[in-house]
């Protein structure tokens, strides 16, 4: 019992530090990647001077994130005199918290047996094995949708309670856009559920460590390339980033539903957006890119298509899986940033048209074809 | 009141999208390919220690393609004996449209040819418009402009007042109009005469 608690606390600490780390690093990655993509250098003037010397540490502009955070913390927290101050104050947290909660069901590693990591640990942990996941829920993917749906409420609350026309318009846009794209998101994942026959994310990842067609790793993107594309597009629309950033389109709505927010409250909205990039990366990795496993890898080690197998010690497997997961998530995040700095913004009617008249039928068609194929193969 | 139904205007250059463009994905992939390859090329340059950007870090680096005739920082010339060529006539300060030149004249009875000399000669670069009228107005060829602009950016506006000593001692490499006399040891004002 105590051992379970300790393991859970360790996992929660790991998950929170990973998410916060990604949120902080991604602000820097976004700036630098955008700069390198457009032949610029990017933010590089923030420095820390070693006290008593003239040595200035620049470190590729990494301190800009710190400077930003400090600025947001020290800024005046300007509040509008709104009639609904409670909703106004609570809205950033309603946006921010579900984003963190989604990560609870995402497996960030295979199984962990502390006794096999280091012998003396067996006195405390026994021979038990824990899956590296905060909450091992059978409902996995459903929980993800349930929690990510909550962020709409935060956006609507923020827009409604700000007593500002721009905020209200932004909130309306956010609401209609996020609900539309959530539908597409769910439909694309349905095909995957048909293929794997489960909604448990860890079981999905374990099924992806196999081999299909003799040489390809059995990743979701191999089974469902079409769904993967639709999923990524719909997920970016869920996150309200360019090319779908209509709810916060600067040229039309100033900052959309968080126009009236300042200081760290506005920072929370921004931070939630950046963490959601990481969450989308983690979900995409788990569903379509084989999760925490390298190709041909499972908890036992590597099993290559030719029949050759390489066994690995438990510690090496755990470290490889943790590292692989982080690397994959980072690459997907980087790809999202590439999209954000490549495509121009949609017009508002086009966004909804795109969801209902283009992606929705495609997702349905994908689902039908998948269902037929799965039925034909299984019977 | 009759209302005309809204008719959408047809433009002669209305873009026509074929099936390929309407399918979104191929064109999006093409765009991603362009930006992605620029990213990888620049990233490769940064990784191998070269510069993958067109930007010039301004105060640390300057562009190589400054025009020869670029009007940068001012130079005060000297006579062969090392005294400033300036006779403190205040012509440059008068013509200056930004009123950035301040001169305080002094009297030197020992130098019969040029009894008037500048005790203070200061330029406020935070207001200077680099028009070059001071150079044209000078009757003595005492002030010139070189093409380089070194050490002007600063965190404090008072650092942008440059005094006589700095303008006299600065030896820019690019001014080929007249070779400067090699700077002799400077004689302090008090010891002269």
What does this entry look like structurally?
The complex is a heterodimer of chains A (379) and B (193). With 379 residues, chain A is mainly α. Chain A has one domain (84-378). Chain A is built from 14 helices and 9 strands. In chain A, helix 2 (63-74) crosses helix 12 (263-288) and helix 7 (165-196) packs parallel to helix 14. With 193 residues, chain B is α+β, with helices and mostly antiparallel strands. Chain B has helices at 19-22, 25-47, 91-95, 133-137, 164-169; strands at 74-76, 101-107, 116-124, 143-145, 161-162. In chain B, the strands form 2 sheets. A 3-stranded antiparallel beta sheet of chain B has the order 2-3-5. At the A-B interface, helix 1 of A face helix 2 of B.
Shape of chain B: elongated
Strand count of chain A? 9
Structural class of chain B: alpha+beta
Portion of residues in beta strands of chain A equals 5-15%
Kindly report the spatial arrangement of strands forming the biggest sheet of chain A: 7-8-9
Number of domains of chain A: 1
- Rounded mean pLDDT of chain B is 83
Feature tags:
A: 379 residues; mainly alpha; 3-stranded antiparallel beta sheet; 9 strands; 64% helix; B: 193 residues; alpha+beta; two-stranded antiparallel sheet; 12% strand
Present the secondary structure layout.
The complex is a heterodimer of chains A (379) and B (193).
Chain A: H1 2-37, E1 48-49, E2 56-57, H2 63-74, H3 85-102, E3 111-112, H4 114-117, H5 122-125, E4 130-131, H6 140-161, H7 165-196, H8 201-207, E5 211-212, E6 216-217, H9 220-223, H10 225-238, H11 250-253, H12 263-288, E7 297-298, E8 301-303, E9 309-311, H13 314-340, H14 348-378
Antiparallel strand pairs in A: 1-2, 3-4, 5-6, 7-8, 8-9
Helix pairs in contact in A: 1-12, 1-13, 2-12, 3-6, 3-12, 6-7, 7-10, 7-14, 10-12, 10-14, 12-13
Chain B: H1 19-22, H2 25-47, E1 74-76, H3 91-95, E2 101-107, E3 116-124, H4 133-137, E4 143-145, E5 161-162, H5 164-169
């Amino acid at each position: 019992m105590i051992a379970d608690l300790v393991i859970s606390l360790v996992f929660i600490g790991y998950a929170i530090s990973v998410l916060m780390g990604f949120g902080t690093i991604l602000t820097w990655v976004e700036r630098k990647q955008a700069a390198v993509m457009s032949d610029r250098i990017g933010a590089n003037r923030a420095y820390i001077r070693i006290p008593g010397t003239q040595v200035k540490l620049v470190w590729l502009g990494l301190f800009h994130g710190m400077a930003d955070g400090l600025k947001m913390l020290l800024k005046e927290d300007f509040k509008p005199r709104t009639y609904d101050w409670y909703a106004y104050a609570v809205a950033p947290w309603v946006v921010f918290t579900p984003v963190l909660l989604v990560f609870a069901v995402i497996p960030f590693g295979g199984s962990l047996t502390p006794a096999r990591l280091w012998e003396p640990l067996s006195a405390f942990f026994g021979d038990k094995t824990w899956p590296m996941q905060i909450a091992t829920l059978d409902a996995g993917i459903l929980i993800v949708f349930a929690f990510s749906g909550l962020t709409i409420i935060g956006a609507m609350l923020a827009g409604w309670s700000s007593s500002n026309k721009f905020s209200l318009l932004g909130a309306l846009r956010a609401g209609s856009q996020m609900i539309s794209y959530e539908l597409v998101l769910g439909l694309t994942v349905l095909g995957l559920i048909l293929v794997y026959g489960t909604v448990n994310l860890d079981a999905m990842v374990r099924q992806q460590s196999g081999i299909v067609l003799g040489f390809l790793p059995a990743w979701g993107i191999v089974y469902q390339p079409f769904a993967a594309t639709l999923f990524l597009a719909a997920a970016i629309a869920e996150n309200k980033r360019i090319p779908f950033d209509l709810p916060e389109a600067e040229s039309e709505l100033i900052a959309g539903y968080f126009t009236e927010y300042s200081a760290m409250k506005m920072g929370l909205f921004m931070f939630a957006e950046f963490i959601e990039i990481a969450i989308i990366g983690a979900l995409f990795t788990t569903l379509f890119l084989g999760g925490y496993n390298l190709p041909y890898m499972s908890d036992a080690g590597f099993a290559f298509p030719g029949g050759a197998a390489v066994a690995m010690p438990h510690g090496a497997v755990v470290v490889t899986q943790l590292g692989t997961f982080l690397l994959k998530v980072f690459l997907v995040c980087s790809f999202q940033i590439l999209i954000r700095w490549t495509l121009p913004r949609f017009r508002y009617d086009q966004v909804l048209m795109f969801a209902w008249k283009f992606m929705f039928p495609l997702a349905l068609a994908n689902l039908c074809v998948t269902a037929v194929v799965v039925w034909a193969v299984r019977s | 009141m009759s209302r005309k139904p809204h008719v959408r205007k047809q433009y002669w250059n209305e873009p026509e999208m074929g099936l390929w463009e309407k399918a979104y994905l191929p064109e999006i992939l093409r765009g991603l390919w362009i930006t992605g390859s620029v990213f990888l090329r620049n990233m490769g340059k940064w990784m191998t220690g070269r510069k993958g950007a067109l930007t010039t870090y301004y105060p640390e680096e300057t562009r190589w393609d400054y025009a020869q005739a670029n009007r940068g920082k001012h130079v005060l010339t000297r006579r062969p004996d090392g005294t400033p060529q300036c006779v403190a006539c205040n012509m440059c300060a008068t013509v200056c449209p930004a009123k950035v030149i301040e001169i305080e004249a002094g009297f030197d009875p020992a130098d019969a040819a040029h009894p008037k000399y500048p005790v203070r000669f200061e330029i406020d670069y935070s207001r200077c418009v680099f028009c070059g009228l001071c150079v044209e107005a000078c009757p003595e060829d005492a002030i010139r402009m070189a093409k380089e602009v070194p050490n002007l950016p600063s965190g404090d506006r008072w650092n942008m007042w440059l005094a006589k000593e700095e303008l006299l001692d600065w030896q820019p490499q690019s001014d080929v109009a007249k070779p400067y006399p090699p700077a002799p040891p400077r004689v302090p004002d008090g010891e002269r005469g």
